[in-house]
Amino acid sequence: MESVNIHVYDQQGTLHILEGVAGWRVMEVIRDYGLPIKAECGGACSCATCHVYVDDAWMHALPPPHEEESERLDDAFDVNEYSRLSCQIILTPSMNGLIVRLAAGTEP
Questions:
Q1: Distance between CA atoms of 3 and 21, rounded to whole angstroms?
Q2: Where are the domains of the chain?
């Protein structure tokens, strides 16, 4: 499996550079590194506790959210055009360097 680095800003603005693996969910990488993210449903897209903001430069590189993800985002706080559920972003080699920010309200 190919390694993919992601840049994650926590809720306080601290940058963490995390190494993931292509095929993993961004949420899994963030959670496994112990960053403050609830991720209550474990990737089932049944909550919004893994809400992140994707950096503007990366929005074009991600597939658009499907209807179920968009509906779940209605349950999140401070949703904007950069909002995504990190459990629905599956890492690919082309996402090396992806930048996301953990949204407020996702802390455990």
A1: 4
A2: 3-102
Assign domain 3-102 to its CATH superfamily. Beta-grasp domain (3.10.20.30)
Please state the pTM of the whole predicted model.
Answer: 0.95
- Give the residue carrying structure tokens 């601290």: 14
pLDDT tens-digit series, residues 50-97:
999 999 999 999 999 999 999 999 989 999 999 999 999 999 999 999
On whether the CB atoms of residues 59 and 82 are closer than 8 A, the answer is yes
- How confident is the model over 22-40, as pLDDT tens digits? 999 999 999 999 999 999 9
**Contact of 79 with 11, CB cutoff 8 Å:** no
